[in-house]
Structure formats: structure tokens, C-alpha cells
Amino acid sequence: MVLIYALNGLYFSAFLFLTSLGLSIILGVMGILNLAHGSLYAIGGFVGAFLIGMMTQSPVPVMLFVAVLGAVAAAGAVGFILEITLIKHMYRRALEYQLLITFGILMLIEDSIKLVFGGESRYASAPFDAMGSVDIMGHTYSTYFLLVMAAALAAGILIWWVMTKTRLGIMLRAIEMDREMAQAMGIPMRSLTIVAFVMGSAFAGLAGVLVVPTTPAVMGMGMDPLIMAFIVVVIGGLGSLRGALLGSIIVGLTRSFTVAYFAELEMPLLFLIAVVILIIRPEGLFGQK
Amino acid sequence: MMKYCYTPRAAIYIAALVVLLFLPQLLSPYHLMLMESGLSLAIMALGLNLLLRYTGVLSFGHGAYFAAGAYAVGLLYMYLPDKFTFENAILAAILASAALSALFGFVCVRHTRIFFSILTLALSMLLFAVLEKAYHYTGGSDGIRVPIPLFFGYEFEGMRRFQFLIGPYYYVVVGIFAAATVTMLAIVNSPFGKALQGTRDNELRAEMIGIRVKRYRWYAFVISGTFCGLSGGVWSFVNGHITPEISNWVFSGEIVYMVLLGGFMIFEGPIIGALLFTYLRLYAVAITEYWMLILGATLIFLVLVLPGGVMGGLHSLFSRLKLKRVS
Fold first, then answer.
1. Measured between alpha carbons, how far is A102 from A26 in angstroms, rounded to an integer?
2. B133 to chain A, minimum CA–CA distance in Å?
3. CA distance B175 to B158
4. Domain range annotation of chain A
5. ipTM at complex level
6. What is the pTM of this model?
């Protein structure tokens, strides 16, 4: 059973990694803690569930592909609109305003989802059911979970490649290190912050769509992942890729094993880990001061 | 304290207190109960503003200390029903929130800016998770019922909850609210309050002139948390029922919302904000199913257009009018 718990833990980790990646990018590049990140995740979930529900006749790969594309595009588009209308005014504002505007956006999006999709839950388990399960050393394990792990791995490699090997990523990291200096060097701040915000939002949407085949899309579905992503970002370090990866693995495995052995302790233990790390290393495991 | 007794502010305070005392004759019972809820939340908003305005750190987890106060009352009723009197309950609320904020604050004050906000948020969620998961001790997500207590030996036997709330309890809330406001005013104008503002404006300079920055910030945190606990204790009777939701970060976000709505740069802003928020929320819920849309849009409007809140806006309006008259 330990193997299954470990696999489950890795699945949680994969999922957390996708969620926290976007939060981490936005925090790193823009210095804004986006409280509405969970709501962008929910947009991804609802759009994905809607699309899967529309295409019950299509083959599973097509269904998944369209759902993922639609959800990522929707979350990215909403992120784009938010950035150019609201967030762009916030870079020079005090912390309380930055946090409160994203808190306002959270309320706005939650109710807009209700307005667009209705308040009821949406089930979209077709891809999960159709993919069946595989046999891993005598245990049956859902193929879909493996797919999510692969997707997270691919997303991680992609973002690592973009951040280290491309011009775009190098400019983004320059902004992260020193805003003023980056601006002085002629880096186009305005368009790059938009890119970062859209990228972060799109990742939230991706995480959202990947979860709906396993659990239905419900109102407030983004709240728990948001808090989990906070914990991951806190453990890993604000705005660090390696940190997000390591943080996800720590949180995912801890969660899976505590759920298995002492289910009651799951959430308290995670917050405790986050708090302890914040106390001894406030910048996180891989963060810079 | 004497020097505050002869200012226009004192006159306004006394006028406001008189209005508050006559409200039961003016308002319908329903609005009176809302007022009670608003006034008890105002105590908490004042507490949060001691950190935000005077210490320069933003807590996104003050729901935890509010919950500590409310749960102290609830747990006292659950485990020591024979000791369940109003004075014991409020004392328990104050002690529990002071102890919890001393513990959490000790950790938090080592950090500032976003780290402080995230840490306070994480700690309040820790309490939320404990309150929800420790089902056998705290009632879990069902929460705890809070009945009418004994009042200094006086029993409200046979009185209905509703009558109790619109009758005697209203004056109790007003009394505690007034005392809390005057106490907070004294704190922010004391040498301690001035020292706090010094640490906010320039931490290094404050340290250099001999203010023990972290120690002072910690004291401010404990005072602030204790105000929240008092608020939670008073509010628990108004609401009659407490659930872990008050320790969730969303509730803490609403507290910050209240403070900003009223205007955090003005001492009385948070009070106005708490009252306005209570009514705004109620009306939003009453007119539409999509009340969060209204609250969210209002918040965004505030941040973009009226960052000084309602009181800040009025203040700048008045000073502009004054300028016009002069010129």
C-alpha cells in the first residue's frame, strides 16, 4: 500500500505544482500575491467541465485536448483582461491595496462563474472513466492520475526551458531580480508583466481543467487549492521554480501519508510545516531575500 | 487623558454616544440587531487598524483572534456550564485571544511586508483547520451554540433571545464598544503609540534611538489581537452560534475590507467601515443572489478611486471646500 500512497502523493504533488507554478510566477515577476488565483483555477475547471459535457460523443483524446485548450485560453483571457484593466494600476500601490484588489477580484469572479454556469455542480468524469486503470506491481492505479503527473512534468520542463533558455525567460528573471535595473536596461516591462500574468493565469486554468475529471466542478472549488498553493509557495520560497517543485512534493507526500494514517491531522500538519519553515527560513527553502 | 476632554472630537464622541443610546427608540428591532453586530465588529476593526495604520503591517489572519474570543465563550458554555456568566465569558475571551496573539504574534513580528501577511494568514488557517478537525472538542464545522448568559448574577430566565438582544444586551454592546474606542484612542496617542508610528516610518531609525522595534510590534500585536478577541466574545452572543468560518482567511479578508471601507488613515474610519460593511453586506444579500459581485465591485472601486475609504474621501472633500472658501 505504501506504493499507492506514494503514487497518490505524487499525484497531489503534480497537481499542486501546476497550481502553485502560476502563483509563483506572478509573485516573483510582479511582486503581487494573487488571492484570485483560486478563482482562475475555478474558471479553468468550469470551462473544462462544460466542454467535456458538450463532447460526450468524441473520443477521449480529442475531448481532453479541446477541454484543456479551452480552459487554458479562458483563464488566460480573463487574466489578460484583469491585468490591463485592474492589476496594472497596482504595481506602485501599497501592499494592502494589492491584496485587497485581488480579494475583490476573487469575489467578482466567484459570482461571475455562478452567473455564467449556474450554481450547480458540473460532473465531467468521462475521460477518467474511459482511461481505465493500469496494473502497477499488483495494484490497480488509474491511468488518468499518471496522465496528470506527465502533464505536470511536461509543464515543469516547458517553464524551466522558457525561464532559462529563452530571451523571454531571461528578461522575466531580470525583472524578478531587480525591477529598476531591468527597466533601465530597456526591458519592456509593460508587455512582460502582462505576459507573466497571463502565463500564471493560464497555469491556474490548466490545473483547474485537469482536476474536473476526478472531482466535479463546484462553487468555491478554488479555495482549497489556493491555500495549498500558498503553502507550497511559502515552503519553496517566494517566486522560485525549484522551490515550487520541492514544496509541491513535500506537501503532496505529507498530505497523502497523513490522509492514509491520521486523516484528522492532514490540514493542521500542512499549516504547521508551512509555519515552521516560515519561522526558520522566512524566504523559503529556495527563495532569495 | 484630560487634554482630550475639551476637543471637538470629544464633543462628537459624546454626541455619537447619545445617538447610540437612543437608537433603540428609533430603529426597528431588526436593524438594532444589525447595529449590535456592526458595533462588535467595529471593536475588531479598531484592533486591526492598530497594526495597519499605526504599526505599518497588514494582518490577513486576524480572524484567528476573533475566533479565539468567540470559541472561548462557546467552549466555556460547553465544558463549564455552571460558570457560564457574561463576565466570565468576556474575561475568557480576552484571556484566550491575548494568549493566542502573544504566541502567534511572537512569530509574526519578526517579519514585515508580505511575509507578515502570509504568516498571519497561514496561522489563522492553522487554527481554522484545528477547529474544524477537532470535531469532538469544538463541534467541528457545525460549531457551538451560544445561549443567553447570566449577567453578574442576574438571570434573564424566560426572556426570549430576540428580546434579550434588542433589550439589555444592546446597552452592554454600546458600553463595551465605547470603552474599547476610548482605550484605543488613549493607546494610539500614548508615548507607546507614538513609538509604534516611529517604527512604522523608519524601523532602523527607531531602533537607533532605542525603541525595541520587535518588542513594541509584539505588544501592538497582542493588544490588537485582544481587541479582536473581545469583539469575538461580544459578537458570539449577538450571533448565538459560532463556526470555524470566522478563522478562515476569507473572514480575515473581510476585516481588512471593513477597515479600508471606512478609511484606515483616520482613527474613526474602521468603526464607520465596520458599520457600513454590515449594512452593505446585508443589502447586497437582500437584493440579489449575486451579492459577492456587489461586494467585490465595491472593493475594487474603493481601491482604485477612493483609497482613503469613506472617511478619507469626506475628509479630503471638506478640506477642499475649506480651501475654496479661503481663496
1. 12
2. 6
3. 24
4. 2-117+127-280
5. 0.81
6. 0.84
